[in-house]
Amino acid sequence: MSSSTEYGSHTWELLLTVDHQLQDAKKEFLLQVTGDLHIGGLMLKLVEKINIAQDWSDYAFWWEQKKCWLLKTHWTLDKCGVQADAKLLFTPQHKMLRLRLPNMKTVRLKVSFSAMVFRAVSDICKILNIRRSEELSLLKQSGDTLKKKKKKDKNSKEPVTEDILNLCNSPVSSGLPANPGLYSKTMTPIYDPVSGSPASSTITWFSDSPLTEQNCSVLALSYPNCSPEMLAEMYQPRTLADKAKLNAGWLDSSRSLMEQGILEDDQLLLRFKYYTFFDLNPKYDAVRINQIYEQARWAILLEEIDCTEEEMLIFAAIQARYHVSKLSLSSEAQDFTSESEVDEVEAALSNLEVTLEGGNTSNILEDITDIPKLADNLRLVRPRKLSLKAIKAYWFIFRDTSISYFKNKESAQGEPIEKLNLKGCEVVPDVNVAAKKFGIKLLIPVADGMNEVYLRCDNEDQYARWMAACVLASKGRTMADSSYQPEVQKILSFLQMKNWTMSSQATSEPENVDMKPECFVSLRYTKKYKSKQLTARILEAHQNISQMSLVEAKLRFIQAWQSLPEFGLSYYIVRFKGSKKDDVLGVSYNRLIRIDMATGDPITTWRFSNMKQWNVNWEIRQVAIEFDQNVSIAFTCLSADCKIIHEYIGGYIFLSTRSKDHNETLDEELFHKLTGGQE
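C-alpha cells predicted for FERM1 protein:
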C-alpha cells in the first residue's frame, strides 16, 4: 500500500485555460496530473471538471509558450514535454477568418487554425467552389503595403464599413470536412459557359454549401468597383524593391495558422500564388476563372506588372467589353449560344493552359527524323555601347532549338556567321502594332551574364511563327512539339486585338456609351489623358472584340496577361554568395532569374529543368541550388524568409507533376516533402 504522501510526489498541478463564450462560467482550472497521462485523458478530465453540457469535439490544446498544437491525443504529457509551467489553452480548432479574395470582396468563414495551411486552403476552396486549390495560398499583407492606406484613413473621420460576405454556416464550422459533393464528377455544379452564372438545373446542388445562387454570383461575376480615388489609396509598387514587398507575406504551407501568429477574425488575402492555371473549364470553373481574371485586372490597374500603353488599352477594352456585355445581359442571358461559340471558348482555354515541363509528355509528339524548320530574311539588331544600334539583314534558319544566320540565302549551305542556342534563354516581345514594329528580344545565357540580341520581323504572320519557335526553344522544345501551332495562334490572336483601326462609328460612340474609363486603366493614364480621350481610345480597341461573350472576354484578358514579359514572376531581394551588392531574384513557374536591382535588366537565368538539387542551410538561412554542367548558386533572402523561396521552387516542381489522366486527389505528402524543408 502506498501512502498519500508517496502518491502525491508523482502528481503535479497543471493550470488549464478554457476558451469558451460563457461569460459567467469559470475559465481557469487547476488539475492534478501525472507525466504518463495522455492528452486524450487530460481532455476528458478537463471536460468533466468544466461540467458544461456542449459539443467539445472541435476543441484541442494549444501550448502558448511553444506555439504548437497538441493534436496527438495518444501521446503522454512526458512525451510532449509538458511540465507544470506549461500554459495550455483548450480552444476550438475552427475559428472565424476574414479572407480578401482576388476580386477585392471579403468573405468571413470558419477555417481550421490547427491544420496545415495547405489543407486549410483546400477546405476554403471547396467552400468557395474553386478547383485546383494547390494553385492558391494565403498572404499576410506587410506593414509597408498598408502604410499608404492607413495615412488615408487618418484623414477620414467616418469609419469605413466593408461589405462582408458571411459564409459562417459552412460545413467546416463544426469541424466537419467540406461537402465533397461539389467535387464529385456527377454532382459538380455547371455554369453557363457564356455568362458564367450557375446553370439553373444545378443550382440546387449548392444546397449543402453556404454558396447560395446570390453568393455564387458575387464570386463568379465581375463588378467594376474602382475609381481613381480608390486606386490612389491602394499600394502601388514603383520599383522592383516595392514589388518584392508584395511577396514577403506568404504563409508557410506546412504550418498551421495559429503557429504563424494568425488570430481569430484576422484578415488575410487569398491569392493565386502559383501561375500555372491547370485544366480550366468554363463549365465548372466560373468562380476560378473570375478570380484569376480579377487578380490579373488588379495587378494591371495597380501596375504590379508592367505593360505598354498599347497593351493597357487592350486590357481596358476587354474590361469594357465585359462591362457592356453585362449591361445588356438581362434578356439575352437565357439564350444559350450555339455549339460553335462554346467551342471557341474551349479553344481559348486550350490556348490559355500553360503546359509545364514534364506535365503532358504523352501529348508531345515529335518526329525525330523530320523536325520542321523556319527560313526567312530577318533583321538582326545588336546593341552597342556609346553608339547607335547596328541593324543588318541576314538569312536566318531556325532548326531544333537553335538559330543560325548567314550573309544571304545562297550562302546557307556553308558555315553560319553565328549559331545561337536558345535553350534556357529569355524571350521578350518587342512589338508596336500601330508602328508596324514586330521585334523579338533574346537574352541568351553566356559565361559572364546574358547576350542581348534583337530580331526584327516584317509582318505579324512572320513574327508569330518565329516568336512561337523561340518560346518553345527556350523550354528545350522544337517546332515538332504539338504546342507549336496553338502558340502561333495565341500570338496572332493577341496581335489581332492590338490591331484596331479608327472608324467613324468609334468616334461617335463616346457620347452615347455609359462608361467610366478611369475604372479600366491605371492612374498613370487617367493623369495623362482626359476622360473623353480615354473613352475614345478604349472604344477604338473595343471594335475587334465587340462580339465576345462574358466568359470569353475574361479568358482573353487572362491570355493577354499571360503574354506580358513579366507574367508569373514573383520578386525577392537577395544577396548572392560572393556578391557585395543586393540583387533581385525573380521566381517563375519554370526558371529563376537574377535581375540587376538598379536597372531591372536580367543578368542570368536558371531553368528548373536543369536543376539537380536544392537545399537550405537553416542556420544561416541560405538557399543553395545545383544545376547541370557544374553550375551552383547560393543566396540569402533579404526581403522575406528563405522558406518562402524554398516553398516556391518545390511548389512549382510539385505542380509540374499534375496530369489530366490522374484523379483530382492531390499527393499532399509529396507537396510537403518538396516544400516543407527540415528546420
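The mean pLDDT is 81.
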